[in-house]
Specification:
UDP-N-acetylmuramoyl-L-alanine:D-glutamate ligase, transferase (chains A, B, C, D, E, F), Ribokinase-like (chains A, B, C, D, E, F), 4-stranded mixed sheet, Sugar kinase (chains A, B, C, D, E, F), alpha/beta, kinase (chains A, B, C, D, E, F), 12 helices, 10-stranded mixed sheet, PfkB_dom (chains A, B, C, D, E, F), homohexamer
Chain lengths: 331, 331, 331, 331, 331, 331
């Protein structure tokens, strides 16, 4: 697809125990790199969209390894900045049955959190871009990260680029003195597509509706730039078995997707980012219901793939939407 | 069991990504060797049948490794021929949930495809044998492979040996100028037991019935040597969950097997070959319904075992048929 | 919890094939150490109970490795005795679907079986202890092991320490000349809590009731010291899918636990020991129904964890009992 | 370094047994991708040179995986062409002590060998480029590959771009009807820097001198475009221990490098390509002796790194040249 | 040995690439825990010395895993304190031949660095102890860590416990405002045994002698409590091959150890800590030359063992000192 | 080679820690099967000799796996007997540098030790055989094993088959009441080729010479059937570096082999068996000096291969003897 999407956000090293080993018993970790926004960009790159990710890495061998991983995944890495400091990381323990999966974050004081962003020329970054994506994680990390996010949203808005934001409220972040309501409304006000659940509406927009449609309408009242609002519904039968569907409010109606039974989950981390990526892709192609179905199907496939990134092709997603070649042995 | 079965066919190196890794993310492959006909022989060898497999391998260390693998699996390898050339191979990616499993073949121009078979003395090979098994893959590979298969079927037929053929139509093969209908009818005409579904009947026997019994009857009309026709029914709920049953036409009635719910599939490649092996074993022992039940149960167990080969004992299969010791912890 | 529990029993090296590999195809084993009684102690140690395990190991590097494993798991190893000889071991093959899991024991003539126990000063061992746990495996191993078990039960009983015994009748043991009925009744007679199913009652107490409550009452008649009797109900849908619940007879009524659907079993070995550990923990805390629910939930979680030991926290178990945080992604 | 280098050639999947396992005993292969020319490009990309590699891959998931590997390694992949067909591959067994390492090639009939190259616009490819690198492998593969190589050399020569060629005579190739002397002289005639040993001179330029300097002078007589000729000297004490040095003829004198004792070789495959990359880098920077020393040091470091690619920084190479930080523990 | 040694210091998670993989190519890390002082304690615990390590860990699953690792290694963990925060970590890349090994630290802002130590009752900790060991890393981490180290040294000194300090000057630490000369002299003034090289003397004691004996004499002049001063001499032939010896100044003469040729280094991280452990053990047993030889031999063996910890027995070290059973196959 | 060799002896499961891990740190073992005599047979099978091994295995899945391993290695397994019982095993820890390798045996009370051998018909076994090989391990295991060995030697001797015996005195065995001198002289008296060092002469033949030639002459005096006596000389520079040579007494002179520097040993277990295999092979081909050189070269190559078995070809050995292709990269 002849489009260009820019994403901004921290990328961490992900260290996960093999199989279903618990942290205490594992003397060996699988290593990849991941971050909510970069995961979206990787989805899009897999589907032929030109993508560049803006971030900061430590200027040592592991920062370089992370950069090479992004290139492997198809991202343009010219806006990766290198500075002295540490890379954030997170540890993943993959649950099974009734036992939950666990993530332990170790991301404070990272290069990205301390990055002042002065080296970013947003005009240049957004030149030729069609879409910009941010999440609620970035403004939650540090004052400087929040400032970078605001600069990006402002620049994109001025340049007439479509903007998406995954509100994604994380209680454990927001430790630098600001509260979501200090910052999020300003960002949302210039955003076209938001991913938000009722809790996110509460925490980030001070909207206290009980009904999703009512919340969507209120959000659009407050921030008329919003064209689309979406969220997923996940039913946690167990760590190994979830049901997943999505809804998309397009200002007129609340579209509902098919619901999928995910009976043998391999790795659910990154499932939301796969949804976000699918939604952006679908909306870039056009067709609200199609976009929603593509997003959910993309997210479902992510649950079958180890790691954060959704290494599936657009054809594979499209076939799942159509119910073709599902769970077969393709020769 | 005091019987001897001869199988003929290409054996490839199988390279599969570990766990549910996708090809793109895997820097490590598990290696075994497999081929539809040899997989049948391995099943039979596990169950105490004397088996020899006729094939050709490259005369280098990997050809030798493949030969040693066959010996490990219990096959007589005196009819493995070594020539200059390459070994065919295939790459396997194990799906999960809605994501399909994938096989990428790389088998063209292999030693087996180029093997002229002049070194094979079929009289000697079949001396003391009770059964010969071929599949529709061999005549699809090359003119010389088709010729070897014809020679084998003719020799076995003349020597009064029972013959089975898994019709197994593969659209991606048949690239050397001949079509299935040029060759398959002649082979089938001398075969006692065939595995065929409706598509196979169409492509290989020009039979266009919609009903399985009708197709079977038509096939017997055309090729009166056929005593048994069988096929499996597989319901692909997902890559992780299938239902499996089988039917066996014995010239009089269509026998139906129990249906099994395979809820946590480990590896479905080779499932059909396990069925074929079970059917041959069962028919060598006698009892049509018993043979069918043994075949399906054998195939079910294969789905729980990594690799192509069905390393289960005849006792384990027999217990599953009887519903004994199913899914327990045996001490 | 400010309690101290003593356990006694053999610990073996456990060698298990990776994933779902069969013994024949595996050239690599995962290694941990396990034993029914030590597994109980490990559960308790995880939950903050002070535990010491009494056993004998070979006085070579692997005996030392086993000791270090016990320390890793939180046990006090001051009562591990080192002697010339071999360590018992067992091989585990993890089934899937209809294919059963398999254990091959190689435990005869071990250091523990030959250990005369003269070095154990049970007064010292039980000093400060609240509970002693034994199983029916120990008296089944050898005359000397049976003697050690009797000494321990007698000493604990004299010192007024609560005693639990998992009757756990193993047909393959008891090869040294004695039968269960020669020995078990004496041990049971001083025990407060026993785990026993109908078969165990038959083999170890000569009780031939068909109904569980009747059997419990008879057992209490014979051995009035018994306060609690418990067992689990396991429904083996397949090797990958079991249902589990438990019952606890407290002398007045038969309490029933919730039943859990274990749909994606990772490793069921040690599931019974996890239950036992949970029951002891729960009874030490108090509350019969709570103890039973804690035991079953602990056992369920064990099925999601590779290896014999139940490395879960008391909080995780308690949450499962309450249905909180079940199968989620905890950040 | 603000330079751009273009490389052309086949890339194969490399399957190597782990550690020092022999082919026969290994059921697991490590997978990377490699090719003589791409290995050179990867070295250069590591050192900050802009590089693009021209090649053809199969249009399936493994062709895509290979492309992503090249991106990971820092290459511009816009000139990777995708066609129906197979990817060449090679198997590596890593020797030790007196036991040699072994490579088994399986590269015939690959997509690259069959690629007609019509889609390549060499003017566009070479636009902005400073250097073009080819090897004697490409014209040895097939008539079409030889034609592509000639087109590339001609176009680069016309556009005034510096050209290097690793003569690299491979007896096992050249099976399509042409002999080296039919083709190589024409390519060499337009090349500035060649890597050639005495055997290469014989086979590819019909030069039969016994002395290296005499051969170099003769080569320049025949092909006056040649500015530099180089080769390495390797002393095979064992598979684990080699000595390595290099020489560079610059038209005036034969420069000799330091000699390195490589006492614990990890992986020698790709050592020659690392040398070539070092030489190009050094000559782009300037200074004949410096370039030679950089090349040898780069090659030495390659021997310490698993895989084909020389993932070392220019600083690491420069430090080895200076004898700084050699074999230390850097914190 | 019936002695008790207390150590104090930070413990980090160590993440190392397998084999000789570089950071950029590794998608899998081996995980252990290590720290200079705990490594010393582990050596001593292996040799039968009672050891307790004082440190702080995060109060999450990975902090618990670290604690269990210490117990596995034989340490008394009652003085491990748990607080909110992160665990420091370091990444290790194992060099080979001329390529150096690399450590990337990520230890700032750890729980230990932020630990105020108020919960430590040094009187209780040192009760029954014979020796206290600290290193120059602790006062370099943070003001609070320096304070804890001073408190410990003061308490031990007052209680008449022998004290050792590995001066171990690390340029990359000391970032909290203090310089080594602000703090180290005070600690050294109460220490009996120091490990220091000429650079350490310069940076930590302001001693600028060129000769080791002269520096030792000056150090004793300044800090008369010092009884012993020691250091190792390492000759870095390559990352795979070092020579190692040690010297011990006992106030009268400079003793020299045997020199060892370490020709096939497996892992040199922790080699210095193994030396330190050996020296403490040897001096606790008595005999200056014996202690020195034990220390060097212990360090040599460490280089043959993966990970930070020196899992060798005292017998193994003693045999190496005597030249018995060196490099044999012991059955 | 058109010869048939019969070997007799116990085969154990070999469990070795990966890389250079110590027992205490390893949670994973590599698994193969090995035994001194079977290792000899595997060498010979690799070199085209027809071989059958006589042994007894447990009649469970691991006994079957061992049998399949022998078939993989090319042995005729028709004389493998299956009985109730355990398989002996041994644990291997691979040393490095000054740290010795370690083997812990756990072989007592195995199926082979308890096997009465009544099912063996030695006339049938030796029918068509040219050579029989035994070692001093078999008579050391148990009275019944000694009896089997005697029966075999007697039968072979009567049938005029050449006999070799590796005297191989193992102090830890011989625990069933007999001493070597009770049994070995009788076996040696009918043997043509023995491998014996001075200690073996002492313990097994009561020969107390200090000089090897004198001992050989004395041995031939005592047992005139002996035609050849041989032993290896191993210089243990370290666990990673040995020197190896051999001598062969042919009744006339003591032939000396070349000496090899084995500088990077991968696995030395089985090195003596590889020598024995080489000697038998060489003597079957003819030429005393050639046989000796082949034997030493075969043993050297074994040291480069993980596991007990010497998976090298006769060509590879012959090339090493000639100094061709040593430590190269063969394409």
């Amino acid at each position: 697809m002849n489009k260009r999407v820019i994403t901004l956000g921290e990328i961490m090293m992900r260290l996960s125990t093999p199989g279903h080993e618990r942290f205490v018993s594992s003397n060996n970790y699988n290593v990849v790199f991941g971050g909510a926004e970069a995961n979206v960009a990787i989805s899009l790159a897999n589907w032929g969209v030109s993508t560049a990710h803006v971030t900061a890495f430590p200027n040592h061998d592991i920062g370089k390894a992370a950069t090479q991983y992004l290139r492997f995944a198809g991202l343009d890495t010219q806006y990766v900045f290198f500075e002295e400091g540490r890379m954030g990381l997170y540890f993943v323990e993959n649950g099974a049955m009734q036992r939950s999966s666990k993530i332990i974050y170790d991301r404070f004081d990272s290069v990205f959190a301390n990055f002042d962003g002065k080296a970013i020329d947003w005009k240049e970054v957004f030149d030729g871009a069609d879409w910009f994506h941010w999440t609620g994680i970035t403004p939650a990390i540090s004052a400087s990260a929040a400032k970078i996010c605001e600069d990006a949203v402002n620049a994109a808005h001025e340049m007439g680029i479509k903007i998406s934001g995954d509100i994604n409220y994380r209680r454990n972040l927001w430790q630098y003195g600001k509260q979501p309501l200090d910052i999020m409304p300003g960002l949302i006000a210039k955003t076209d597509l938001i991913i938000a659940g009722l809790t996110d509406f509460e925490n980030c927009m001070d909207i206290h509706e009980k009904e999703y449609i009512a919340a969507c309408k209120k959000a659009q009242e407050i921030s008329p730039s919003i064209k689309y609002i979406s969220t997923t519904h996940r039913d946690n039968i167990s760590a190994s078995h979830n049901k997943l569907s999505g809804v998309l409010w397009n200002g007129k109606e609340l579209l509902n997707s098919k619901s999928y039974d995910m009976t043998h989950i391999v790795d659910r981390v990154g499932g939301g980012d796969a949804y976000m990526g699918g939604l952006i892709y679908g909306l870039l192609k056009g067709g609200d219901q199609d976009a929603l179905e593509f997003a959910v199907a993309a997210s479902v496939l992510k649950h079958s793939i180890p790691g954060d990134a959704n290494f599936v092709s657009a054809d594979e997603v499209a076939q799942l939407v159509k119910g073709e070649n599902v769970g077969k042995l393709l020769r």
